[in-house]
Write a structure and sequence with these properties.
Helices cover 72% and strands 0% of the residues. It is mainly α. The protein folds into 2 domains: 1-33, no CATH class; 35-184, Orthogonal Bundle (Globin-like), CATH 1.10.490. The two termini are 24 Å apart. (2R,3E)-phycocyanobilin binds at residues 36, 40, 73, 78, 83-89, 166.
């Protein structure tokens, strides 16, 4: 079942046959108050998704040239396209989880059986994990607006800093990337 912060509070209260308590209401108020930051974070990732994923795949190829050699997992072009597609799908589900404040959509729709599928297809998990680690670093830099022109080159795009402290949101986003890494490991 895919939940958001509100559904999760109601389901938890339902399970204990009580109403949503003061602490639950407080958490929901905090979720609402942080709404613009959450939207900015999702926008920062979604607006740069193509670059984030292509940079991650380029990074794993630089680290392991065998991936693009004949017989490598990014050779021929259709395998490279599949790698880019999978990276964008994972990143999209991470943004869904970040938007809703709940990892169930990521777990149910993307991670359930992913490791087994990749094993059956012969996708190297070490390269997949490394690509997700690169996507995590890049995405967190976009959320915190710490990306620089020196790192971005011609494709650099400053998003504009979200107002206030984003450490909790950054930590939440990092946890979703860590879930993907854990599911692949």
């Amino acid at each position: 079942m895919v939940l958001d912060a509100f559904s999760r509070a109601v389901v938890a209260a339902d399970a204990s046959t009580t109403t949503v308590g003061t602490s639950g209401i407080g958490e929901l108020k905090k979720f609402i108050a942080e709404g613009n930051k959450r939207l900015d974070a999702v926008n920062a990732i979604a607006s740069n998704a193509s670059c984030i994923v292509s940079d991650a795949v380029a990074g794993i190829v630089c680290e392991n040239q065998g991936l693009i050699q004949a017989g490598g997992n990014c050779y021929p072009n259709r395998r490279m396209a599949a790698c880019l597609r999978d990276g964008e799908i994972l990143l999209r589900y991470i943004t869904y989880a970040l938007l809703s404040g709940d990892a169930s959509v990521l777990d149910d729709r993307a991670l359930n059986g992913l490791k087994e599928t990749y094993a059956a297809l012969g996708v190297p998990t070490t390269s997949s994990v490394r690509a997700v680690q690169i996507m995590k670093a890049s995405s967190l830099a976009h959320i915190n607006d710490t990306n620089t022109e020196a790192n971005g080159g011609k494709r650099f795009r400053k998003m504009g800093s979200p107002q206030g402290d984003c450490s909790a949101l950054t930590s939440e986003a990092a946890s979703y990337f860590d879930r993907v890494i854990s599911a692949l490991s």
